[in-house]
Amino acid sequence: MPIRYLVRDQDFKFSKRFDRAFSDAGVAVEPTAPRAPNQNAFVERWIQSGKYECLNRFIAFGMNYLDHLVSEFVDYYHELRPHQRKDNKPLLGAGRMPTTLRAAKTKWSAESGSVGS
Predict the structure, then answer these.
(1) Which structural domain, as residue segments, surrounds residue 56?
(2) Cβ(70)–Cβ(60) under 8 Å?
(3) pTM
(4) Residues 79-89: tens digit of each pLDDT
């Protein structure tokens, strides 16, 4: 998964050199607003969900596999995972299969000769 932007808080441990390293790699650095801890809370909660629901269950033996795991989790998070704020419905639709899983299932069905759903 390509990194397009980095959202970080206003902590002093993030120096100009830190920002420049990401900028040189083509990543836009977006600091959160000063004295706005709630902005950081959403990101930290999403990372915690990713760790506990996905990454703690697998061992990634390389960046390609880690990218695959994270992209599958993002699809699951948006398309299948229930969210309390939305009356326990997924963010992007009710019970749709994640796009990458759908493509894999279609490919498997075509290879095995069975009809995919």
Answers:
(1) 36-117
(2) no
(3) 0.56
(4) 888 776 677 77
Residues 66 and 25 in one domain: no
Domain count, the chain: 2
CB of 95 closer than 8 Å to CB of 88: no
**pLDDT tens string 39-54:** 778 778 888 989 998 8
Identify residue 44 by its one-letter amino acid code. Answer: E
Q: Which two tokens mark 63? A: 């960046």
Amino acid at 79: E
Tokens 């932007």, residue?
A: 5
CB 98 within 8 A of CB 79: yes
DSSP 8-state assignment for residue 85: G
Backbone angles phi, psi at 28, to 5 degrees: -80, 125
10-38: string of b/e by CB count within 10 Å (b at 16+)? eeeeeeeeeeeebeeeeeeeeebeeeeee
Distance from the Cα of residue 91 to its chain's centroid: 14
